[in-house]
Design goal:
single chain; mainly alpha; two-stranded antiparallel sheet; 6 helices; 2 strands; disordered C terminus; transmembrane helix; transmembrane; membrane
């Protein structure tokens, strides 16, 4: 087992243990058993998806791009469940973020993780992410949209970084298939 895997799964365990410890010292942290189950499923699922994603290519840029994309999905889900991105977690406008997660999930499977195609998928995802802010304004959603604009921009930047990494990986590999290059 590589030290990356040990470090990654150790980090997941630390994240799960942290609220349990915090509950002993602060009344502000109040997690239920359901909260721990949801966190375990989200973090464990993220870890498994990262494990699967990094096995799709030996190219470091591909692996990092895949990891960024997966963690970006986790953060969007976690923020929506915890506090919401648009208004609070109960604001129905937050359901628009399902389109971002769905696009990445369905697109990745449909494109079979091919690096060049994943690059374009990440660009499309960044556009959808930013479009949510525009939709919130057009729909006149009653919430302070400044934090949503900031978060959507930050997520879009991460999608674009992932796109660049996939593009770099596609120049040498597309998945695990080396491209043929002529040498003169």
């Amino acid at each position: 087992m590589s030290w990356f895997r040990v470090l990654g799964w150790g980090f997941v365990l630390a994240l799960l243990i942290t609220p349990a410890i915090a509950m002993r010292f602060s009344e502000e942290v109040q997690w239920t058993a359901f909260d721990f189950v949801v966190a375990a499923v989200l973090l464990g699922g993220t870890g498994l998806l990262i494990e699967l994603g990094v096995r799709m290519s030996t190219h470091l840029a591909y692996r990092v791009g895949m990891t960024i994309a997966i963690i970006n999905c986790l953060l969007i889900i976690w923020l929506n469940l915890a506090v919401g991105i648009i208004g609070n977690e109960e604001n129905p406008a937050n359901s628009m973020y399902l389109s971002v997660i769905g696009l990445v999930a369905v697109g990745s499977v449909f494109l079979r993780g091919k690096a060049n195609a994943m690059s374009w998928l990440m660009i499309a995802t960044a556009i959808v992410q930013l479009s949510i802010s525009i939709a919130a304004v057009l729909l006149e959603i009653p919430a302070d949209l400044q934090p949503a604009f900031f978060l959507n921009s930050a997520f879009a930047i991460l999608w674009v970084i992932a796109a660049g990494l996939f593009k770099a990986a596609s120049e040498r590999y597309d998945g695990e298939k080396p491209t043929t290059q002529r040498h003169s």
